[in-house]
Automatic annotation (TrEMBL):
Signal peptide feature range: none
Species assigned in the record: Cupriavidus taiwanensis
Root EC class: transferase
Protein name: 4'-phosphopantetheinyl transferase
UniProt keyword terms in alphabetical order: Transferase
Biological process annotations from GO: lysine biosynthetic process via aminoadipic acid
Domain 4'-phosphopantetheinyl transferase N-terminal: 32-118
Gene: taiQ
Gene Ontology CC annotations of this record: cytosol
Keyword Kinase: no
Amino acid sequence: MDCKNLPHAAFPRRIPAPAPQLSLWRVDLGDPLHAQAIAAADCLSPAEQAHCATLRQAADRRRFRGARVALRTVLARRLDCAPSTLRFRTGSHGKPYVEDTAAPAFNVAHAGDYAWIALAEAGGEVGVDIERIDPALGLAAMRELAAHCLTPRERAWLALLPARAWPRGFFLLWTAKEALLKALGLGIADHLQHVSVVADGRGGAGRLAVVPESGQFAGEFAGQFAGHAAALARMRLYRLAAPDGYAAAIAWVPPA
């Protein structure tokens, strides 16, 4: 079955996006109807099938295949073409794009039983992330992760939260940082300390502030990635309403 002919109930579900220039789609990978349709779909490229086969865990193969089939389905309907004809390329840090000048920028994230697809309908760049809030992750482990992943500004905000709120607070910051770095097309591990996410609630419901860090980190960011610094100044970053037990965020860089 070609992806274009997915049953309506198995098609990715469009959900509200925080800005009219964006469209957002959710894939319920754990839904039996969707899983059955994805298993029967025949639109992945040989390279995608080969990559899927290298994944050791069945859950990882299910997530990758489900997200890719859904992405091809959404983009094919947007571009009015057959899903199997879409040709993907990757940027220097692995961010995919479609080899078609009419295609919007897009981004995909998946975790647990969900995959999310974001399109920048009005141009620019987009990044999205969803993470499962691990209930087994203790406070000590989160503090250790925060010391590596978060800036001093972010850790100070997190420290103000009661212990019970740490998991949601940590994953709010993490998903936002991953979404914004994906929107910029930068490697995540190399740039976690270059920018802070400020969850102060200003700028509208769900809107997050982005603060370039001063000193050495900001100097490296502005020097080596001056174009990205300009994009960062235009960025709009939002937390998203996610299913129970998950956190999600989306970042959009409008055209200059």
